[in-house]
Amino acid sequence: MSNRGNVKIDERTVWEKIADQLRSRSMWMLHYCTGCGAVELPPSMTSRFDLERFGIGPMATPRQADIFLITGYLSVKTLRRVIYTYEKMPDPKYVIGFGSCTINGGIYYDSYATINRLDYYIPVDLYIAGCMPRPEAIFEAFTKLMEMIRKGEANGWKRYKENYEWYKQNQLRSLGEVIIHDEFHE
Amino acid sequence: MMSSTNNIGLEEILSSLNQLFEGVSTEKVDPRQYKIITPPEKTIPVLEFLKEKGYSHLSILTCIDWIAEKKFELVYILFNWGTGVTFVVSTYVNRDNPIFYTVKHIWPTAEYYERDVHEFFGVKFEGNENCEKPLILELWNDLPPLRKDFDPLEYSKKHYPDREYQKDAIHEARIIRGDVRGEIDG
Amino acid sequence: MGEVKLFFGPNHPGMHGNFSVHMYVEGDIVVKARPMPGFLHRGFEKLMERRLWYQNVALIPRICVPEPDINEACYAMAIEKIARVEVPERAQWIRMIVLELARIANHLWSFGGIGGPTGMYTSMYWAVADRDRVLDIFEELSGARIYHMYIVPGGVRKDLPPKLEDKIYHLLDYLEAKIPEYETFILKNRILHTRLKGIAKIDTETCLKIGVTGIGLRATGVPYDIRKVDPYLFYDKVEFEVPTATEGDAYARISLKPKEIIQSIRIIRQCLEKMPSGPVNVKIGEGSGLRIRVPRGMAYVHVESTRGEYGYLVVSDGGEKPYRVAVRGASYPQGLYGVEHLLPGTRIDDVPIWLDSMGVCAPEIDR
């Protein structure tokens, strides 16, 4: 399910097209377990399902990562860190909403602590439905994302720049502030 | 496995509770679980007494909101590693101005349970200086969420916008299942 | 040298789950540490009050992600205690099989997890792949890999599928042959040995004072196990041992995991042998279908999870929904109080090992 379906005429230069071809073959996935879907990632990455054959591996720092997997529900407390982390990632960057909770709140639709719709706060390129998505669904999503990158359709990061004011306003509306404080209360 | 202090029989502890502390009532839940209801001023002496008798493990400290009776019930669950008996010690505090006393001098971990209870019910614990610091929630500006008069769905609707669907899929599913009558368009 | 404020997690390669520790460090020694939980807070205790007794079965496995079955078991047993219902014998044996399979799965999971902070990824590749074999059994049993929703109030959802028993036996044989390999190739491996020996040491007195249970306590030489001390289901009818170690360090805690798996295998074998045939669930409370009413009352039920005592306090006011459910996460004491008071003095690079070997599990702290 691609977001908003705003397929434009391909405006990429030849060099960008070549770059996108190469990008789709080597993607680093940010190691950030934002929710319970992260429990299916180690099985996908290790010997049984082996994610590396798709050219995808885990990456520790957001500064060097390409894919940001939002694995499941997002509490507002995590959303502050997610926005902070997303903005730290260099372009081009791709976001996958993992599980039903990112689409419409899922089983937590009436929770006071979790958000109901992820693409209201950060742009999402692809959603995986289900609770929780199986490793096969994760592969399906990744191959789809690779195809989207090759076609130049995965441009959530461009939308974030173009509609920055709108996203910022939504973030402030739900979160109050996006600043992160420490636990010392000094 | 048993130390000398917890060799005292269960019957003996229950009868001495009634003798030593006025107004304490005991109730059998099952052969290895008893509920003890104490008046607020006797709770801490009862807990100290039980800890001396081998009930040294504080499983959890939590709270129940009895809104109709206008009371908060504070629950201390004690476990004896020697005999495997659980005591559920509870006391009632006033709901309008909920203040109780800390037990962190008896069980250091209680400091965090008390912070938890303060955050979710608004009960203050005298003697616990960290009690009012936020722990799990961040920038919370509403009623303590586990109080019965707090409505999470309303809060969620106000703060976290829902996804707008073009058609009501749940309603259509009901029609297909035959729960309600109607027509499906498209 | 001055003190530096450091935010450790939630996005950190050494951090397991979504948890954070904020600390002051001097050089690479932690001087002051504060836990920061709450990233996975979904308000379960509130949501449970808004759903029917049976609807909650779908909700609660999500409280503890790697080992969901203990939630269902605690919740179901607490309701049965309030309603004073006796569960059919076969259902109790099946519950034990499910709980022990979940214990094996989670021990393998956390055994693999230690690969991250120590840099010994072999353990992760082996253990996670072996865990998948257990998940395949679960998939056949319940239809799902992670969240099974198999144990329901009154028994279990349905009887074991045909030929599953043979597959479980086959799995147990496989694991029994595999565990010695874990001990030889992973536990005796120099990387793991050097990295874990003497790290994150904790003594019995501290454990009992702050309420650490499970492997954390047993690694200091105290054989406290809720399955032995306060037996639930039929744990008093099976034979098993409680493995202990005396060192109380990270290595002792990790090395107990394969030993516990061996005991779980022993328990499952006995369950499969002793299990009679018969019904697997019984009606509970008043009312019809899924809209049941549970009589007024309050009960606390705890089980031994892989990280220690895991408990549910369930309160009913006689209605269609629970009045209050409180969850005691097994890693609450070490994850909050333990981090604040025991972490200072360790080095930054040992912090992930500390958190991992003590079994700090964020979702059950945050709820």
UniProtKB/TrEMBL annotation, chain C:
It comes from the Bacteria. GO terms for molecular function: NAD binding; oxidoreductase activity, acting on NAD(P)H; quinone binding. The keyword Transport applies. Keywords: NAD, Oxidoreductase, Translocase, Transport. Gene3D superfamilies: Cytochrome-c3 Hydrogenase, chain B. Residues 119-283, 292-367 form the NADH-quinone oxidoreductase subunit D domain. Its EC number is 1.6.5.11. Belongs to the complex I 49 kDa subunit family. This is NADH-quinone oxidoreductase subunit D. It comes from Fervidobacterium thailandense.
